[in-house]
Amino acid sequence: MTLKSNKLLQKMLVEQPPAELFDLVMVRLSQEQKIVLIKKRLAYLSIFLVIATVAFFPAIVSLKNEIINSGFGQYLILIFYDFKTTLTYWQDYSLSLLETLPAISLAASLLIILTILALIRSISRYTQMLIKLSPNH
Questions:
Q1: Whole-model pTM?
Q2: What Cα–Cα distance (Å) separates residue 59 from each residue in 6, 16, 26, 63, 114?
Q3: Which of 73, 82, 110, 118 is 20 to 30 A from 135 in CA distance terms?
Q4: Distance (Å, rounded) from C-alpha 76 to C-alpha 82?
Q5: Which one, of 57, 54, 62, lies nearest residue 102 by Cα?
């Protein structure tokens, strides 16, 4: 029995791993590094998405309050109540709308909305990349 085990041990020591094994291991290590990097980016993007979503609600409330306080809503509704007059004085009407438009709140709200959309787009792209690189795929 010891003779067979010695031959088996010698055979195991003499055999070398396949030549492509090193390349496969290096490729897999590279993929794991990419996966870790993508997971970190996804974590950061998710945190920024939560922050932007939380900031969205006060921005919308501020926009609503400024629309009410500036009289923009009243001017906007005027077109439905007195269409002929607004059509006759459309230049003055449009100027009045522009003067009462809460531009800063509107710009802030739109900026937050665009940021949320960009973050969702980035998160979906990185998620697709992560799915492609995952070993079970």
A1: 0.74
A2: 78, 66, 49, 6, 13
A3: 118
A4: 11
A5: 62
